[in-house]
Protein 1
Amino acid sequence: MTTRALLLGGISALLLGGTMVGCAANGGGIASASDRNAALATKAAAGTAGQAQAALARNDGPIAIGYAERAVALMPQRADYRMLLGQSYLKGGRFASASHAFADALQLSPTNGRAALNLALSQIATGDWQSARHSLEANAAIIPAVDRGLALSLAGDTASGIAVLTEAARSPASNAKIRQNLALSFALAGRWQEARVVAAADMAPADVDARLEQWALFAQPAKASDQVASLLGVRAVADAGQPVALALNAPAPETPGVPEQALAAADPVIAPTEAAPVQIASVSGAGVSKIAFGPRQEVVQALPTMMLRPASGPIKVASAPVSSGRAMATAAYQVKAPATGNWYVQLGAFESAGVARDGWARAARRFAVLASYSPNGMTFKAKGEDVYRLSVGGFSKSAANAMCRQYHAKGGACFVRQGAGDVMAQWLRKPGMQMASR
């Protein structure tokens, strides 16, 4: 039986129990049954909340969700239980449900900055950037600048995020965490040189390169939830939303009855604790790199050329033959004679030329001017794995800067660099064509 079914069944039993006790009550001068049931409910809720906290400590999101939902069902006006429920939903990758839980917690406890921050993160993960930015702005006074700045950048407002973090970095209280969040925000904005300079303040040059490589891979999320899921170290799952019965304004009995067995079976009370403070400065080595927004991971945008050395020598690439009398298989990409100049606008770094081709199609839809240019690319090694860099160019420096600014204005991410072996994209080449890198 699903957690939702168990929860709804439990609520039905509580409603029935409350009605039966109420019928048995009399007007004698003894403690009322409703008082006793309220005490039982309080203890049972604390016990299930403790079990949810223990499941979170084991990184067992689904189990934590089940216990946290029961705690909220028993004590719906407890802000700390709603916070625990939101944290459990986050651990289980259920971002839509988490946004509801944190919104309820914030309504019950309007000064809870952690609830406001987690609400914004959940909204970012569901693709609701506008609501996330509103949450961050409305609660600016209760969310620490170091967290609010990065959250604004993740919500697409990198200019505001950089402004908040720059001010924090210039204050006497500046620390490595603030500087690293600022560096990440610069990277999210495609301002790689500044990202490198700020990141280098707290780490060795070799570590900076590794960090920026990780951010480069983070730059191309396939779904709205990818970045936040990566930050939290969880996997997003299909989410129908928080059960309706748990809504903050859902009708509930004034004195819910709790079976006697609940008191005997309840585990020892473990007071639920709030999530650990946000930490973001470090990235772990293997798998998904860890930073923190809780325990989280950092990452972002396309990697500038200066950080990676392209493989030298000619690149041989074969493509499918194009039948005569037809447009090239990639008719959407009309090949244009290259302009004079050695400056390029880099649009991203992808795991293969095929993925880069899809990225080019998305970029051209976002910024129609790109359709009149032919894409360029090249394969290079990053940590022993092939990465395909996508660009458009052959411009003067001023022309490349102008194009990148226009692309940024359309919501794209790019940066300008000099040529580094960029050649015609693989999917545009004729069979047997060999392109030598410059």
Protein 2
Amino acid sequence: MAAAAAPPQHQQAWWPGRMGAAFGPSFLCLVCLIYFIQGFRSFVWTAVSYQMKDMMKLSPSTSQFLVSLAYFPWSIKPIYGILSDCIPIKQRKRIPYLIISSCLSLLPWLILGLSQTLRTSADMLTALLIVQNLGSAMADVVIDAMVAEAVRSAGPEFAGDLQSLSWSSMAVGGILGNLLGGYALSNLPFHAIYVVFSALPFFQLVSCMFVEDSPKGYQSAIDEHKYVDSQSAVTAFSGKGSSETLGYEGTRRRKGTRKINKRRPMSKQAEANEKHNVSNNSSPPLSLRSAFFSLCTAFKQPTILRPMAWFFFSNVTIPNISTVMFYYQTEELHLEASFIGTARVIGWFSLIFGTYTYNRYFKRKKLRNILVFPGLLMPVLP
């Protein structure tokens, strides 16, 4: 009697083990570190809030305005994704931008920690915080793109694993950041907290050196941008048949390309010269224009437009009063920094619980059915 069919290999192996085998330890470490830093940012931003209130003596409205201005780079995250996709640096689209973002995240905290003059100036403090958030937002976009590409290459069975790992790392960072932030405020000056936190962007910068960002596929991406640019003006605003037309024409074009390559074999030197010429003749505006038309085509789809509209109105209609609430908690309720940090930990534990629940019970269920329950609970929650 034939033996029973063995379960898939990815179900037999231990979860961290199969993740490491599928994506590589260096890539997983980079993903965990970046998301951990995103959560651990509460460690240093609590110090920023206390500095604005106690040292700079800013009013709640002024502090709220400066913090909202400092977080503006997070509102334009799609721009970083377009730049990373359309303007590669040395034929690489991810790691160079991660290196740039790590430097932008590292330098402002070092400057704030070492210069008292800049640290006590509202204008310079806001400017440096904007630069720091620019680096953090760019790193968030780039690592999201790398996660999506890695999942696409590994297969659909890993669709929710990397996301669960990412959110779990962020939750762990948030828990430690809030717990240690209150302790640090009681034992360290503000400038020391800034310098200590700058070690994490430095580790992020070093970790980028161990992750490969292969330039393979760069030439085909340039050719695809050229073709899409010639077709997108017709299909982006036509309202029908855009995806089918592009898919059919792209397939026909690739078949024609393979036939031409079979008829005209090229030497290695000629192929290298051809790649060099095409790379020099390809201009960034061409790729940016193709990306713009692709976005227009995507926004016409109801499955994308409706969730985007929901996120837009949910953020517009709910005011951000986090800094004002911080003043109320410290000035009116007289809560200590350690208590505020401990209270915020509850939210991060909820994130871990939600991540585990989704990965354990809901990962293979329809997204529409999953979103019904949060949509019903959110209006009744305070």
Protein 3
Amino acid sequence: MSFQWYVLRTFSGHENKVKTALEKEIEFRNLQPYIKQILIPIEKVFEVKDGKKKSKSKSFFPGYILIEAQLDKKITDIILNIPSVMGFLGTRNRPQPLHPDEVERIIGKIKAEERGERIETPFKVGDPIVITTGPFAKMKGTVQEVNSEKLKLKVMVSIFGRKTPVEIDFTQAELEK
């Protein structure tokens, strides 16, 4: 029997807890020959909140963990009895392994994320915003364009009764409440 990748379903937000419990179980029961690796596909994103850029990790597939293992009935039962585990992709009695192409695509995406970080923006085209700093501070406007790479917004504001486009940084704007 060879190692294959399987998808384990968990409660959303419990991925790290399940991974830790699974690692402890592997250590306690000496299952290292049967389970090679456990992977939570995450990406590092930056979020702009209150004018500050913050880094956080976000799961590609919330509620899913990838496991490279040689599964048999005993190993499957041990994994399914870990708290917050809902089951494997496939049927309960016969977990369905991932196709090698799918595994390569997912691992490639993870490696690409490790090389470059993505910006998560709270702004969308059409959002009403308030400019917080700079020469247009306290002015209200509507987002016309979002440039995540440069962290810039093109906002339409009213100056002397006339709509005018203004380019500002993400950190200079807040969503209107």
Protein 4
Amino acid sequence: MLLVYYAALTWLPDILKEQGLGDQSAFMVTGSMTAVGILGVIVSALIVERLGRKWVLGVTSIVSVVLLVGAAVFIEASDSELTFVAKASIIGFGFVVQIAIPTLYTYVSELYPTRLRGSGFGWASAASRIATGIAPIVFGAFMWPVLGLTLTFILTGLLVVVAVVLMGLLARETTGEALS
């Protein structure tokens, strides 16, 4: 999930400017995407204990991908002016992905027993940082220019879907568990 988020966050201003938006308009859309994320974090805190980490993470990850792919479709279909639906999809992505990210951090740390939690989460976080450092470069240098925006978000979104399916099949739910 973080891979897709950082690729989108890094490149959306350029994507929007290439679509014809001025610097200020591109900043307003991406700034709105980031600002609405604060509400997403609050929603995450309110629902994660009731609905469960796996469910919240799985649903919000898939919805984030759908919103981002939808935004790409509407961006590429727009002539010069970015449509309301494209802007709403981008801002919606910012909200939903910020429900997923705090849930992800909570969930991953709880998968490790207490004696290994610091090093286990540290290892997972380091691997994530490396991937999220490489992803925007691959996205901007190869995928988006060669494959186009929609296909790029579909392919990166498929990685998220595969991760969600694997989590659903292989990982345990930690909500309500006593941490050992």
